[in-house]
Amino acid sequence: MAQYQHHLDGIFQALADPTRRAVIGRLGRGPASVGELAQPFDMALPSFMKHIHLLEETGLIRTRKSGRVRTCEIDKARFAAVDGWLGEQRAIWEGRTDRLEQFAIAATNKELKS
Known about the structure:
With 114 residues, this protein is α+β, with helices and mostly antiparallel strands. It has helices at 5-15, 18-27, 34-38, 45-57, 76-113, and strands spanning 32-33, 61-66, 69-74. β2 and β3 form a beta hairpin.
């Protein structure tokens, strides 16, 4: 996980934008051309391409060009890094809430005995 730490800042920055999250959501259903991805958004293609380039720079997506069509697809390895980091955080917080629950149960039992 440590090898991915320096990539996480860029990945979360990329995912902070709703347009980029929508693109990732669409690509979750399979590869798509830039034209297909841009269709639902009311913005000029050069502006939309900035989102595509940022997603590509962070490694969240890969693109390939065939003739005049650029096709995008998700790079699952990057999402595995995010999932790994989130899993670590989830385990830490679950441990803390489990200890709090045990403390509350012990305190309640102690009150009932006295």
